[in-house]
Amino acid sequence: MTFLLYLAAALLILVSLVHSYLGERFILIRLFKRDNLPQLFGSSDFTIRTLRFAWHLTSIAWLGFAALLLALASPEFTPAMLLQIIAATFALHALLALILSRGKHWSWLLFAVVSGLLVMTAIR
Q1: Measured between alpha carbons, how far is residue 105 from residues 20, 49, 79 in Å?
Q2: Which residue ranges run through the membrane (predicted)?
């Protein structure tokens, strides 16, 4: 069973990296060259930033799932490990959303709160 968990985690890591790279190269960059993107907050900049971080959040989520599978494969597995991995995943979500949206997309705040709550739960 451990081998299967490692294999699944490796596949998730691979698909995450490929998704981000190919998505940027062949989808997002081409999409952003269009002149008919919605203009929110006065320009299409917010739309571009939101689409970019939303695209990459998927990859981060898959990396988080890979980390969960690796934790499950570990002989030292504890429920606290799962909480810590999920907290770290949502902390990365918050950071990416904050940076790429320049704080304009409020999802970063929700992700940060979720991460903080999970950290507090894990240390109890």
Answers
A1: 20, 9, 32
A2: 53-73, 80-100, 106-123
8 Å CB contact between 70 and 12: no
What is the chain's mean pLDDT, rounded? 93
Burial 77-105 (b: 16+ CB within 10 A, else e): eeeebbbbbbbbbbbbbbbbbbebbeeeb
Residues 96-111: pLDDT tens digits? 999 998 888 899 999 9
Specify the pLDDT at position 36. Answer: 85
| Tally of domains within the chain | 1
Rounded to whole angstroms, the Cα distance separating 2 from 64 reads 18
Q: In whole angstroms, what is the distance from residue 101 CA to residue 95 CA?
A: 10
Q: Decide: 24 and 46 in contact? Cβ < 8 Å.
A: no
Q: Report d(CA 85, CA 79) in Å as an integer.
A: 10
Question: Amino acid identity of 19?
Answer: H
Residues of the chain with pLDDT under 50: none
